[in-house]
Design brief:
Structural class: mainly beta
Largest sheet: 7 strands, antiparallel
CATH topology: Jelly Rolls
Mean pLDDT: 83
CATH architecture: Sandwich
Strand content: 25-35%
Shape: globular
Radius of gyration: 17 Å
Low-confidence stretches: 1-50
């Protein structure tokens, strides 16, 4: 199902969850989105590197306000829509949760997008040019929701991010693990730019694990624009009749060879804790067999 912008997020999420259960089982490349697009796709798409690209990062380095030179932070692409990522305690965090112009909604949200055109704090991403539209991106998400308090407090989400396209309102495709009514689910959809317009297009039920247990989330595109989702090595069965079929990605995104990761910490309360709660502990990006 598609979550339209301006729908009540929690109400829609409840419907999605019920459906799942009933089914059973870069410094800036450009300062304007339009100018960024040519640079994003000008990497190695027509060179042999498209067949061998691999990047693995475990973030085991000194704390930093950036991810490092290999990464292009989405903050540098569209400064008014995203917060910068950094490294803290061996994982990816939002380095500064309040860098966008506007008024923030700092309470755990009851609507998506927030009321009165406010902004969610703590949402950012980073990408690399793989030179390919067939790719696998796997993150190890920290499992960091409800560790110190009950959800939604300290609820930090993370996702692999595919087909990043500045200038497109859907921006990129991801899959976020969350918890509803004490049951873990994964929402697949579009990060959106601005991210307050996040869209859910599918969801799946996940087996429970203790809070704080790291989980591997993989998005795999063996054909351009056709994505399957794996959690802890098992393919996720999606709701509403989607089952195990690949999700079809918006054609306006599929030509992008930029893929990476995203962090969403807008559930953290108090929001001042956002830079100290890690979301992603490692990532592996590799080109999959198929047409680049």
């Amino acid at each position: 199902m598609l979550q339209k912008p301006h729908q009540n997020y929690l109400a829609t999420a409840a419907i999605v969850l019920a459906s799942c259960f009933s089914a059973g089982a870069p410094d800036a490349l450009a300062r304007s989105p339009e100018a960024a697009v040519p640079a994003l796709n000008a990497g190695c798409a027509e060179q042999p590197c498209a067949d061998v690209f691999t990047l693995a990062d475990d973030f085991e380095r000194e704390d930093s306000a950036s991810l490092g030179e290999r990464w292009t932070d989405c903050k540098s692409l569209i400064p008014e829509h995203f917060e910068p990522l950094g490294v803290f305690d061996g994982g990816v965090v939002i380095a500064d949760a309040f860098t966008r112009p506007g008024v923030y909604d700092t309470a755990p949200p009851v609507a998506h997008p927030p009321l009165d055109d406010k902004l969610f704090p703590g949402i950012g991403c980073a990408v690399v040019d793989t030179g390919s539209t067939t790719v696998s991106v796997t993150i190890e998400w920290s499992g960091n929701f409800g560790i110190n308090h009950k959800p939604p407090v300290n609820h930090v989400e993370g996702t692999p991010l595919l087909y990043v396209t500045p200038g497109h309102p859907r921006f990129g495709f991801g899959a976020w693990i969350t918890q509803l009514f004490n049951s873990p689910v994964i929402f697949a959809g579009y990060m959106a730019s601005p991210p307050e317009n996040f869209e859910v297009i599918a969801a799946g039920k996940l087996p429970k694990k203790p809070d704080g247990t790291p989980r591997r989330v993989e998005l795999r595109a063996e054909e351009p624009g056709r994505v399957t989702i794996f959690v802890d090595g098992e393919q996720v069965e999606l709701n509403d009749g989607q089952g195990f079929k690949p999700l079809e990605i918006d054609p306006g995104l599929v030509d992008s060879t930029w893929h990476g990761l995203a962090v969403d910490a807008h559930y953290v309360d108090p929001a001042s804790d956002i830079p100290s709660i890690k979301s992603i502990e490692s990532v592996r990006i590799e080109v999959t067999p198929g047409k680049p």
